[in-house]
Every structure is written in C-alpha cells, then in structure tokens.
Amino acid sequence: MRLTSLSATGYRSLRSIRLDIGPLALFVGENGVGKSNLYRAMQLVKASAEGTLSYEIAREGGMQSALWTGRRRTGPVRIAFNASFEDEGTTTRGDYTVEIGLRPPAAAGFAFEPQIKEETLTIDSGRRPVDMMGRKGPAVFARDDSGRRVEHPVKLLDSETGLAILGSSGRYPEIGDLRATLLGWRFYHGFRTDRDSPVRRPTLAITAPMLDEDGGNLAAVFATLVHIREDTVDLDRCIAEALGGATLDVPVPGETATFGLRLPEFPQRLFRPEELSDGQIRFLALAGALLSYRLPRLIALNEPETSLHPSMLPALADMISQAAERTQLWIVTHSRALADEISARTGMRAMTVVRQDGATSIEGLRLDGHFGDDDLL
C-alpha cells in the first residue's frame, strides 16, 4: 500500500498539519523551521507498527518535550498522527490514526510516560469505510479473518500499540498487511562517517537486496549489485560523476564482502573505506540506499546533502530521480540547490517549509492538505 497523506497534530512545532503525498515528497527550508519534525512524524508512524511508539517519544524527552508548546484548546492534551494509504491498482484505501496522551493524575504509570489513548484503522474498498480496528484505553476491537468484529482477548498496556500487537498475531489480516507496509519503510537520517562507522566496515557475505538504516551492510549491497545482479551501469555512472571519475572496486566476497575506490590519479591504488573522506563515504552510502537491488516501500532521506561537496549534488539528484521510478520517496533538505536539481529531473516542485507563530507550515498549503491553483506541484 502506498502512503497518500500524513497528518500530525500537537507534536512539537506541528500544531496541525496535513499533507497529501505523491510518489515524491520534497521539502526544503531553513534550519529551525520544523523540517525534521515532519520527518520524525513519519518515523513515529512506523514506530507504531514496530510497537516502539511510546519508547521513541520517551527517548526524545518524553511528553513534556514532544507536545506542542504553543497555546492549546481546552480538552485532553494529545499528540495525534494519521496516515492514509491506497492499494495501488485497486480502489482499496486505508486510514490509520493513533493518539498519545499523558497519564491521568490518579492512574498508575510514570508522570510523563507517553500513553496510547486511541487507535483506529478503517478500510474502504469502494462501498463504505469499514472499521477494522478500534481501541480506547486497553480494550481493542478488530475484525478477524472471517470479518467478525471481536474483542482482542488481551488488554493492552498503555505503552503498547494495537497495530503492533494485533498486526503480529496472525488473526487480523488487514491489520497485518498495514503493519507489514510500515515495517517496509526505511529512514536514512544521515550516516555515521567516523572511523568506526558501520558503513566503513566489511560485512558478512550474505546477499543484501537493500541497505540497512545504519548502512552497516553497504559492502554486501555493492557485492549483490556487482556479482549477483551484474548490472552496475547506473551505480558506476553516478559514482564517476560525483567523485571525479572514481570507480568502485568490489572483489568477489569470501567470508566477508568489502569494497574500495580507484581514483583516476592513482589507478593502481585501491582506497579502502577507512581511507575515504566523509563526503566520499556518505555519497557511497546514499548510492547503496537509492540504487540497491531492491528498494523498500518508502525511502525517507533527512538532509542527504550533509558533508557533500556542491559538485556532488547533480549526481545525488540523478540517483533520487532514478529511485523515484521504483519506490516512494520523502526528501527533507535545506539545500535549495539540491531541491532545484531534483525538481529539474522529476518535474516535482519542492514544498517550502516555513514557521509562522511558532507552528510549522508549508507555503501555499491549505488546511485540507491541498495547494492553491498557483501552487500546484
């Protein structure tokens, strides 16, 4: 299923925002306007499928840090995320919402622990929306594989999501399908480039169709492209364009897979990963993420231009454009130059992220998530 819209309410600088999402969502803006909060909202939707939503919010400082800090309306203090999906090739649509709040004063639990308050999942196959899951507090109702609405036999903890618990049980196929979709997303929030970075290390010689989020299987991804797929035309071209004519060298793996670069000025010398600059190794990791044998259902990149020389941006835009033909992309950048390069190749205009009265918004975006006639992508 493909993501079609994302909404976030009450989360950090996201007072209330809704975005319609196409094959490529491209966001550009200055530092401090809330671009990373948009990216993080996407991550937290995936965390709901993983069952780590409460943990992830607690890890970033708990509810006191995650809640919208501006003026609030009266009523329960909540963070809410909503994601809508469509099953490509059919009329089936899905809509998932999760709301997180604080512990009531007299209830058990930790004062600032994020607590899952409500969850819903509806599926619309063209007739009318059908509630596939509904949760308030610990009780969850869902439709089983026969379509009957039943109460899940186990009461959920306040830190557990119904999407994760029911989706992994095997009893509720539609919930399981959505969970599998979200678990297939990959978020590449930069790559470590220090000397002990996973990207620089050899990896076990196991076929790797796509890059891990930390880049730790990069050598295996390259070995899979070179020795199994045997098609590295796009990879070779982008590396040569970005790195001054350099060529990627990937030996036949033994127990481990490795790689290196050969530079035109030193053709007999193989530069191993630990010898490469931060910009070189980061570009290679991005190439592994965007040109791997099989791409994930959605790729999200947060400021991929970090540490890259401006001369590398056209090649990065080429890789993003090619990946957009194979999967859905979510790109957050503060580089207008990179955004322009991507737009020139894909025809998709960047959405400019701004901050007004403390709230993150998109220039030209209406409250319904659409742009005005003069701001169409």
Based on CA inertia axes, which overall geometry fits? globular
Helix content: 25-40%
On the 0-100 scale, what is the average pLDDT?
91
Put simply, the count of helices is 10
Number of strands: 19
Distance between the termini: 22 Å
- Lateral arrangement of strands in the main beta sheet: 2-1-4-5-6-7-8-9
Major sheet size, sense and barrel closure:
8 strands, antiparallel
Strand-residue proportion: 25-35%
User: Class by helix and strand content?
Assistant: alpha+beta
Radius of gyration, in Å, reads 22 Å
Low-confidence stretches: none
Q: Which H/E pattern describes the elements?
A: EEEHHHEEEEEEHHEEHHEEEEHEHEHEE
Comma- or semicolon-separated keywords:
six-stranded mixed sheet, 377 residues, alpha+beta
A few lines on this structure:
About 25% of the residues lie in helices and about 30% in strands. It has helices at about 35-50, 55-60, 65, 160-165, 175-185, 220-230, 235-240, 280-290, 315-325, 335-345, and strands at about 1-10, 15-20, 25-30, 80-85, 95-100, 115-125, 130-135, 140-145, 150, 185-190, 205, 245-250, 255, 260-265, 265-270, 300, 330-335, 350-355, 360. The protein is globular.
Describe this structure in words.
This protein is an alpha+beta fold and 377 residues long. Helices cover 27% and strands 29% of the residues. It has 10 helices and 19 strands. It has helices spanning 35-50, 53-59, 63-66, 162-167, 173-183, 218-229, 233-242, 278-290, 313-324, 336-346, and strands spanning 2-11, 14-20, 24-28, 78-86, 93-101, 115-124, 129-136, 139-143, 149-151, 185-188, 203-204, 247-249, 256-257, 260-263, 266-271, 298-302, 328-333, 351-356, 359-362. It has an 8-stranded antiparallel sheet. A 6-stranded mixed sheet has the order 10-16-17-3-18-19, sandwiched between helices. The chain has a 3-stranded antiparallel sheet with strand order 12-14-15. A hairpin with a 2-residue loop joins β14 and β15. α7 runs antiparallel to α9. The longest helix is centred in the first third of the chain and has 16 residues, at 35-50. It is globular and about 65 Å long. The two termini are 22 Å apart. The model has no long low-confidence stretch (mean pLDDT 91).
